[in-house]
Amino acid sequence: MPGTPRFPGATDSAEAGTAPICSAKGCRTPAVWVLAWNNPKLHTPERRKTWLACDEHREHLSSFLGVRGFLKDVVSLEEWEERHSAGDGR
Q1: Can you give the chain as a three-state secondary structure string?
Q2: Taking a C-beta distance cutoff of 8 angstroms, is the pair 31, 25 a contact?
Q3: Would the pTM count as exceeding 0.85?
Q4: Per-residue pLDDT, 11
Q5: Cβ–Cβ under 8 Å, residues 31 and 5
Q6: For residues 32 and 77, is the Cβ–Cβ distance under 8 A?
Q7: Environment class of residue 88 by beta-carbon count within 10 Å: exposed (0-12), middle (13-18) or buried (19+)?
């Protein structure tokens, strides 16, 4: 769908009628969180990469990124989609 953010595990999700899935290895649970991050050695400060998380894996994935200093924000998938559909660029 044009203008819709693309997430890992969400390939053609709108067309298939399935929700984006958690980025944790082996998890097939629908995602409810977006973990925005960047690697300062590779990305400009304003760039945000995203991982998706279910409730069960939110803390684990956040810790993984946080220990490395990569984690920038954790928001609900719903809030993330609202921000980006509104075009505020966060």
Answers
A1: CCCCCCCCCCCCHHHHCCCCECCCCCCCCECCEEEEECCCCCCCCCCCEEEEECCCCHHHHHHHHHHCCCEEEEEEHHHHHHHHHHCCCC
A2: no
A3: no
A4: 40
A5: no
A6: yes
A7: exposed
Please check whether residue 1 is in contact with residue 14, taking contact to mean a CB–CB distance below 8 angstroms. yes
Distances (CA, A) of 21 to 18, 25, 33, 50, 66: 9, 11, 10, 12, 21
Tens-digit pLDDT profile for residues 3-49: 334 454 444 444 445 789 999 999 999 999 999 999 999 999 999 99
Residue with tokens 């991050």: 37
